[in-house]
Amino acid sequence: MSRLSVAPMMDRTDRHFRYFARQLSRRALLYTEMVTTGAVLHGDRSYLLGFDPEEHPIALQLGGDDPDALARAAEIGAHFGYDEINLNVGCPSPRVQQGQFGVCLMARPERVAAAVCAMAAASGLPVTVKHRIGFDDLDRYEDMLDFVDRVAAAGTARFTVHARKAWLTGLDPKANRSVPPLRYADVYRLKAERPTLTIEINGGITTLAEARDHLAHVDAVMIGRAAFDDPFLLAAADREIYGEPTPGPSRREVAQRLAEYADRVVASGTPVSHVTRAVLGLFAGCPGARAWRRELTVGANRPGATGEVLRTALGGISDDVLDQLPLPRAA
Predict the structure, then answer these.
(1) Which residue among the candidates 91, 104, 117, 286 is catalytic per the annotation?
(2) Is 91 tagged catalytic?
(3) Rounded to whole angstroms, what are the CA distances from 209 to 13, 180, 236?
(4) Model confidence over 201-233: pLDDT tens digits?
(5) I need a surface site. Which of 1, 108, 146, 212 has the fewest CB within 10 A?
(6) Which is nearest to 3 in space by CA: 329, 202, 212, 221?
Protein backbone atom coordinates (compact mmCIF):
# COMPACT_ATOMS: atom_id res chain seq x y z
CA MET A 1 0.00 0.00 0.00
CA SER A 2 1.28 3.46 -0.89
CA ARG A 3 1.38 5.84 2.06
CA LEU A 4 1.84 8.92 -0.14
CA SER A 5 0.39 9.91 -3.49
CA VAL A 6 0.39 12.87 -5.86
CA ALA A 7 -3.15 13.95 -6.66
CA PRO A 8 -4.65 13.76 -10.12
CA MET A 9 -4.68 17.37 -11.40
CA MET A 10 -6.07 18.59 -14.69
CA ASP A 11 -3.46 20.31 -16.85
CA ARG A 12 -0.82 19.28 -14.33
CA THR A 13 -0.24 15.54 -13.92
CA ASP A 14 0.39 14.60 -17.54
CA ARG A 15 2.91 11.92 -18.47
CA HIS A 16 5.84 14.35 -18.48
CA PHE A 17 5.17 15.68 -15.00
CA ARG A 18 4.67 12.13 -13.75
CA TYR A 19 8.02 11.06 -15.20
CA PHE A 20 9.57 14.07 -13.46
CA ALA A 21 7.87 13.20 -10.15
CA ARG A 22 9.11 9.63 -10.40
CA GLN A 23 12.71 10.86 -10.56
CA LEU A 24 12.09 12.50 -7.18
CA SER A 25 10.29 9.64 -5.44
CA ARG A 26 10.40 5.97 -6.38
CA ARG A 27 7.62 5.03 -3.96
CA ALA A 28 4.83 7.63 -4.13
CA LEU A 29 1.74 6.61 -6.08
CA LEU A 30 1.14 8.76 -9.16
CA TYR A 31 -2.16 9.50 -10.88
CA THR A 32 -3.13 10.51 -14.36
CA GLU A 33 -5.27 13.54 -14.96
CA MET A 34 -8.95 12.61 -14.91
CA VAL A 35 -9.89 11.00 -18.22
CA THR A 36 -13.58 10.69 -19.09
CA THR A 37 -15.02 7.44 -20.33
CA GLY A 38 -16.00 9.14 -23.60
CA ALA A 39 -12.39 10.15 -24.22
CA VAL A 40 -11.09 6.65 -23.49
CA LEU A 41 -13.67 4.91 -25.64
CA HIS A 42 -13.62 7.29 -28.58
CA GLY A 43 -10.40 9.34 -28.38
CA ASP A 44 -6.71 8.85 -29.07
CA ARG A 45 -5.91 6.22 -26.46
CA SER A 46 -2.18 6.24 -26.98
CA TYR A 47 -2.08 9.97 -26.32
CA LEU A 48 -4.51 9.87 -23.41
CA LEU A 49 -3.33 6.72 -21.65
CA GLY A 50 0.26 6.15 -22.71
CA PHE A 51 2.96 6.38 -20.05
CA ASP A 52 6.59 5.54 -19.47
CA PRO A 53 7.28 2.26 -17.62
CA GLU A 54 9.29 4.24 -15.06
CA GLU A 55 6.07 5.87 -13.84
CA HIS A 56 4.94 2.76 -11.92
CA PRO A 57 3.19 2.63 -9.52
CA ILE A 58 0.54 4.59 -11.40
CA ALA A 59 -3.25 4.84 -11.22
CA LEU A 60 -5.64 5.80 -13.99
CA GLN A 61 -8.38 8.16 -12.82
CA LEU A 62 -11.63 7.85 -14.74
CA GLY A 63 -14.60 10.18 -14.84
CA GLY A 64 -18.09 9.03 -15.73
CA ASP A 65 -21.34 7.70 -14.33
CA ASP A 66 -22.28 4.79 -16.60
CA PRO A 67 -21.14 1.46 -15.12
CA ASP A 68 -20.85 -0.22 -18.51
CA ALA A 69 -18.77 2.59 -20.02
CA LEU A 70 -16.60 2.76 -16.92
CA ALA A 71 -16.06 -0.99 -17.04
CA ARG A 72 -14.94 -0.83 -20.67
CA ALA A 73 -12.64 2.10 -19.92
CA ALA A 74 -11.17 0.29 -16.92
CA GLU A 75 -10.52 -2.79 -19.04
CA ILE A 76 -8.67 -0.64 -21.57
CA GLY A 77 -6.66 0.91 -18.73
CA ALA A 78 -5.67 -2.55 -17.57
CA HIS A 79 -4.45 -3.39 -21.08
CA PHE A 80 -2.27 -0.29 -21.00
CA GLY A 81 -0.63 -1.58 -17.82
CA TYR A 82 -1.97 0.67 -15.05
CA ASP A 83 -1.61 -0.61 -11.50
CA GLU A 84 -5.05 0.48 -10.33
CA ILE A 85 -8.13 2.37 -11.46
CA ASN A 86 -9.62 5.30 -9.56
CA LEU A 87 -13.12 6.72 -9.94
CA ASN A 88 -13.51 10.49 -9.60
CA VAL A 89 -16.35 11.29 -7.22
CA GLY A 90 -14.97 14.65 -6.16
CA CYS A 91 -14.72 17.06 -9.08
CA PRO A 92 -17.21 19.97 -8.85
CA SER A 93 -16.59 21.62 -12.24
CA PRO A 94 -19.62 22.77 -14.25
CA ARG A 95 -18.69 20.47 -17.14
CA VAL A 96 -18.59 17.48 -14.81
CA GLN A 97 -21.88 18.51 -13.20
CA GLN A 98 -23.51 18.60 -16.63
CA GLY A 99 -22.38 15.03 -17.14
CA GLN A 100 -23.81 14.07 -13.74
CA PHE A 101 -20.57 12.60 -12.49
CA GLY A 102 -17.77 13.77 -10.19
CA VAL A 103 -18.96 14.90 -6.76
CA CYS A 104 -22.61 14.68 -7.89
CA LEU A 105 -22.25 10.92 -7.62
CA MET A 106 -22.07 11.17 -3.83
CA ALA A 107 -25.85 11.50 -3.96
CA ARG A 108 -26.03 8.21 -5.89
CA PRO A 109 -23.98 5.70 -3.92
CA GLU A 110 -25.79 2.75 -5.49
CA ARG A 111 -24.61 3.98 -8.90
CA VAL A 112 -21.03 4.26 -7.67
CA ALA A 113 -21.24 0.79 -6.12
CA ALA A 114 -22.44 -0.69 -9.42
CA ALA A 115 -19.68 1.13 -11.28
CA VAL A 116 -16.80 0.01 -9.08
CA CYS A 117 -18.05 -3.57 -9.11
CA ALA A 118 -18.21 -3.55 -12.92
CA MET A 119 -14.81 -1.84 -13.21
CA ALA A 120 -13.10 -4.38 -10.96
CA ALA A 121 -14.65 -7.32 -12.79
CA ALA A 122 -13.67 -5.97 -16.20
CA SER A 123 -10.13 -4.88 -15.35
CA GLY A 124 -8.97 -7.33 -12.72
CA LEU A 125 -7.33 -4.37 -10.97
CA PRO A 126 -7.94 -2.70 -7.61
CA VAL A 127 -10.59 -0.01 -8.02
CA THR A 128 -10.48 2.95 -5.64
CA VAL A 129 -12.65 6.01 -5.13
CA LYS A 130 -11.68 9.66 -4.61
CA HIS A 131 -14.47 11.75 -3.12
CA ARG A 132 -15.26 14.77 -0.98
CA ILE A 133 -16.70 14.81 2.52
CA GLY A 134 -19.89 16.01 0.85
CA PHE A 135 -21.43 18.72 -1.30
CA ASP A 136 -24.05 21.43 -0.85
CA ASP A 137 -26.42 20.27 1.91
CA LEU A 138 -25.37 16.63 1.67
CA ASP A 139 -22.42 17.27 3.94
CA ARG A 140 -23.01 15.61 7.29
CA TYR A 141 -20.50 13.04 8.47
CA GLU A 142 -23.33 10.51 8.51
CA ASP A 143 -23.97 11.18 4.80
CA MET A 144 -20.35 10.48 3.94
CA LEU A 145 -20.30 7.35 6.09
CA ASP A 146 -23.40 6.02 4.34
CA PHE A 147 -21.79 6.66 0.96
CA VAL A 148 -18.58 4.89 1.95
CA ASP A 149 -20.41 1.92 3.47
CA ARG A 150 -22.50 1.35 0.35
CA VAL A 151 -19.54 1.60 -1.99
CA ALA A 152 -17.31 -0.54 0.23
CA ALA A 153 -19.96 -3.27 0.15
CA ALA A 154 -19.36 -3.48 -3.61
CA GLY A 155 -15.73 -4.37 -3.06
CA THR A 156 -13.80 -1.11 -2.89
CA ALA A 157 -11.44 -0.97 0.07
CA ARG A 158 -9.52 2.27 -0.55
CA PHE A 159 -11.06 5.72 -0.31
CA THR A 160 -9.26 9.01 -0.85
CA VAL A 161 -11.18 11.74 0.94
CA HIS A 162 -10.80 15.41 0.09
CA ALA A 163 -11.51 16.92 3.50
CA ARG A 164 -13.59 19.80 2.11
CA LYS A 165 -17.17 19.80 0.95
CA ALA A 166 -17.96 21.27 -2.46
CA TRP A 167 -20.42 24.01 -3.31
CA LEU A 168 -21.86 23.34 -6.74
CA THR A 169 -23.32 26.83 -7.06
CA GLY A 170 -21.49 30.00 -6.12
CA LEU A 171 -17.97 28.60 -6.13
CA ASP A 172 -15.81 27.73 -9.13
CA PRO A 173 -13.45 24.71 -9.04
CA LYS A 174 -10.52 26.85 -7.89
CA ALA A 175 -12.50 28.33 -4.98
CA ASN A 176 -13.76 24.85 -4.06
CA ARG A 177 -10.13 23.88 -3.41
CA SER A 178 -9.68 26.54 -0.75
CA VAL A 179 -12.87 28.25 0.44
CA PRO A 180 -14.86 25.44 2.13
CA PRO A 181 -13.22 24.75 5.50
CA LEU A 182 -11.09 21.68 5.97
CA ARG A 183 -12.64 19.00 8.17
CA TYR A 184 -9.78 16.63 8.83
CA ALA A 185 -11.50 15.31 11.97
CA ASP A 186 -14.24 13.77 9.81
CA VAL A 187 -11.66 11.81 7.83
CA TYR A 188 -9.91 10.68 11.01
CA ARG A 189 -13.26 9.56 12.39
CA LEU A 190 -14.01 7.60 9.23
CA LYS A 191 -10.78 5.65 9.66
CA ALA A 192 -11.45 5.08 13.35
CA GLU A 193 -14.97 3.78 12.69
CA ARG A 194 -14.05 1.74 9.61
CA PRO A 195 -10.60 0.40 10.51
CA THR A 196 -10.62 -2.33 7.85
CA LEU A 197 -10.84 0.23 5.05
CA THR A 198 -7.81 2.04 3.65
CA ILE A 199 -8.44 5.74 4.15
CA GLU A 200 -6.30 8.39 2.47
CA ILE A 201 -6.62 12.08 3.33
CA ASN A 202 -6.39 14.94 0.85
CA GLY A 203 -6.78 18.70 0.95
CA GLY A 204 -4.53 21.57 2.04
CA ILE A 205 -1.48 19.39 2.74
CA THR A 206 1.69 21.14 1.64
CA THR A 207 4.64 19.52 3.45
CA LEU A 208 5.92 16.08 4.38
CA ALA A 209 5.83 17.12 8.02
CA GLU A 210 2.09 17.66 7.70
CA ALA A 211 1.80 14.32 5.91
CA ARG A 212 3.54 12.54 8.80
CA ASP A 213 1.14 14.15 11.27
CA HIS A 214 -1.85 12.90 9.29
CA LEU A 215 -0.40 9.41 9.09
CA ALA A 216 -0.92 9.09 12.82
CA HIS A 217 -4.67 9.00 12.06
CA VAL A 218 -5.10 7.60 8.53
CA ASP A 219 -3.40 5.13 6.21
CA ALA A 220 -2.17 7.46 3.48
CA VAL A 221 -1.82 11.08 2.41
CA MET A 222 -2.40 12.68 -0.97
CA ILE A 223 -0.57 15.90 -1.80
CA GLY A 224 -1.96 18.10 -4.55
CA ARG A 225 -0.80 21.42 -5.90
CA ALA A 226 2.14 21.69 -3.50
CA ALA A 227 3.73 18.78 -5.38
CA PHE A 228 3.44 20.71 -8.63
CA ASP A 229 4.43 24.14 -7.32
CA ASP A 230 7.37 22.90 -5.22
CA PRO A 231 8.04 19.38 -6.52
CA PHE A 232 11.42 18.96 -4.81
CA LEU A 233 9.54 18.20 -1.59
CA LEU A 234 8.97 14.76 -3.11
CA ALA A 235 12.71 14.09 -3.13
CA ALA A 236 12.64 13.49 0.62
CA ALA A 237 9.46 11.38 0.54
CA ASP A 238 11.05 7.94 0.23
CA ARG A 239 13.15 8.60 3.32
CA GLU A 240 10.65 10.58 5.40
CA ILE A 241 7.47 8.62 4.60
CA TYR A 242 8.74 5.16 3.65
CA GLY A 243 11.86 4.94 5.79
CA GLU A 244 14.33 4.48 2.96
CA PRO A 245 17.94 4.92 4.18
CA THR A 246 19.13 7.22 1.38
CA PRO A 247 18.38 10.95 1.30
CA GLY A 248 17.01 11.14 -2.25
CA PRO A 249 18.39 12.81 -5.38
CA SER A 250 19.80 16.30 -5.73
CA ARG A 251 18.26 18.83 -8.06
CA ARG A 252 21.25 18.46 -10.38
CA GLU A 253 20.67 14.71 -10.71
CA VAL A 254 16.99 15.20 -11.43
CA ALA A 255 17.57 17.96 -14.00
CA GLN A 256 20.16 15.88 -15.82
CA ARG A 257 17.80 12.90 -16.02
CA LEU A 258 15.07 15.17 -17.33
CA ALA A 259 17.38 16.56 -20.00
CA GLU A 260 18.04 13.02 -21.25
CA TYR A 261 14.31 12.29 -21.12
CA ALA A 262 13.58 15.48 -23.07
CA ASP A 263 15.98 14.39 -25.79
CA ARG A 264 14.03 11.13 -26.15
CA VAL A 265 10.71 12.98 -26.18
CA VAL A 266 11.88 15.33 -28.90
CA ALA A 267 13.22 12.41 -30.95
CA SER A 268 9.73 10.88 -30.81
CA GLY A 269 8.24 14.03 -32.33
CA THR A 270 6.96 15.85 -29.24
CA PRO A 271 8.03 19.48 -28.63
CA VAL A 272 10.41 19.92 -25.71
CA SER A 273 8.02 22.49 -24.24
CA HIS A 274 5.81 19.61 -23.12
CA VAL A 275 8.62 18.59 -20.78
CA THR A 276 9.91 22.00 -19.73
CA ARG A 277 6.52 23.29 -18.59
CA ALA A 278 6.28 20.30 -16.25
CA VAL A 279 9.56 21.08 -14.48
CA LEU A 280 9.33 24.86 -14.01
CA GLY A 281 9.03 24.44 -10.24
CA LEU A 282 12.14 22.33 -9.65
CA PHE A 283 14.03 25.27 -8.12
CA ALA A 284 11.08 26.94 -6.40
CA GLY A 285 12.31 29.19 -3.59
CA CYS A 286 15.97 28.88 -4.62
CA PRO A 287 18.39 31.52 -5.93
CA GLY A 288 18.25 31.35 -9.71
CA ALA A 289 14.68 30.01 -9.88
CA ARG A 290 13.48 32.91 -12.00
CA ALA A 291 16.35 32.50 -14.48
CA TRP A 292 15.58 28.75 -14.65
CA ARG A 293 11.94 29.38 -15.50
CA ARG A 294 12.79 32.09 -18.02
CA GLU A 295 15.36 29.98 -19.86
CA LEU A 296 13.01 27.00 -20.04
CA THR A 297 10.11 29.11 -21.25
CA VAL A 298 12.08 31.03 -23.86
CA GLY A 299 14.45 28.26 -24.87
CA ALA A 300 11.73 25.69 -25.40
CA ASN A 301 10.21 27.88 -28.10
CA ARG A 302 13.38 28.15 -30.15
CA PRO A 303 13.33 26.16 -33.38
CA GLY A 304 14.92 22.73 -32.95
CA ALA A 305 14.98 22.94 -29.14
CA THR A 306 16.00 19.74 -27.34
CA GLY A 307 16.97 18.66 -23.85
CA GLU A 308 19.87 21.05 -24.22
CA VAL A 309 17.44 23.73 -23.03
CA LEU A 310 17.49 22.17 -19.57
CA ARG A 311 21.25 21.81 -19.58
CA THR A 312 21.61 25.48 -20.50
CA ALA A 313 19.15 26.51 -17.79
CA LEU A 314 21.30 24.73 -15.20
CA GLY A 315 24.02 27.26 -15.90
CA GLY A 316 22.03 29.89 -14.03
CA ILE A 317 21.94 27.86 -10.81
CA SER A 318 24.76 27.77 -8.26
CA ASP A 319 26.50 24.50 -7.43
CA ASP A 320 25.37 24.78 -3.79
CA VAL A 321 21.74 24.70 -4.87
CA LEU A 322 22.27 22.08 -7.55
CA ASP A 323 23.94 19.60 -5.25
CA GLN A 324 21.89 20.16 -2.09
CA LEU A 325 20.24 16.94 -0.97
CA PRO A 326 16.69 16.88 0.40
CA LEU A 327 16.56 18.14 3.96
CA PRO A 328 15.91 15.62 6.74
CA ARG A 329 12.89 15.90 8.95
CA ALA A 330 12.93 18.51 11.67
CA ALA A 331 14.12 17.33 15.04
Answers:
(1) 91
(2) yes
(3) 23, 23, 11
(4) 999 999 999 999 999 999 999 999 999 999 999
(5) 1
(6) 221
